[in-house]
């Protein structure tokens, strides 16, 4: 089996999480500058077999698209052109940032570590991936 890679897209940084090869465990991988995201993904899929990209879908409480969707859709179009052989699925990402922050608190991280937005993005990507795995 191949890995599933989840992307919590942001305009400045993007959190990335992956499954193990059996697609049982979701783990945070890293946070990448969004400008470097496509080159990072291309390099990653050379080293690791990836069968699916999951991309967070930010929604409002009334189920309409969030404003950040305006930035995500062009990225998805570019990803489809640059890496056409890996399918893309969307996953509702409502509350993942809040849940990521709460996870940091619950795990005992000190206040100065909780200010690390890159870590929040990576944890958010992991939560997106976990929710997908639970739904399978």
Automatic annotation (TrEMBL):
**Can the keyword Acyltransferase be found in this entry's annotation?**
no
Q: What is its main location?
A: cytoplasm
InterPro entries of this UniProt entry?
Answer: RNaseH-like_sf (IPR012337), YqgF (IPR005227), YqgF/RNaseH-like_dom (IPR006641), YqgF/RNaseH-like_dom_sf (IPR037027)
The EC category is hydrolase
Q: Quote the subcellular location field of this record.
A: Cytoplasm
Q: Which residues cross the membrane?
A: none
- What keywords tag this UniProt record? Cytoplasm, Hydrolase, Nuclease, Ribosome biogenesis
Q: Where is the YqgF/RNase H-like domain?
A: 2-100
Enzyme Commission no: 3.1.-.-
Superkingdom of source:
Bacteria
* Known function: Could be a nuclease involved in processing of the 5'-end of pre-16S rRNA.
Instruction: Name the PANTHER family for this protein.
Output: POLYNUCLEOTIDYL TRANSFERASE, RIBONUCLEASE H-LIKE SUPERFAMILY PROTEIN (PTHR33317)
Q: Which family does it belong to?
A: Belongs to the YqgF HJR family.
Which protein are we looking at? Putative pre-16S rRNA nuclease
UniProt organism field: Thalassobellus suaedae
């Amino acid at each position: 089996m191949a890995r599933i890679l989840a992307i919590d897209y942001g305009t400045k940084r993007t959190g990335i999480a992956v499954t193990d090869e059996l697609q049982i465990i979701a783990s945070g991988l890293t946070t990448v500058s969004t400008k470097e995201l496509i080159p990072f993904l291309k390099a990653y899929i050379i080293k690791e077999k990836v069968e699916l990209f999951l991309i967070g879908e930010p929604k409002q409480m009334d189920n309409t698209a969030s404003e950040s969707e305006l930035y995500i859709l062009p990225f998805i179009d570019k990803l489809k052109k640059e890496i056409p052989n890996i399918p893309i699925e969307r996953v509702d990402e409502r509350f993942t940032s809040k849940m990521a922050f709460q996870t940091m608190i619950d795990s005992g991280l000190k206040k100065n570590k909780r200010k690390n937005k890159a870590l929040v993005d990576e944890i958010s990507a992991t939560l997106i991936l976990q929710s997908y795995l639970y739904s399978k």
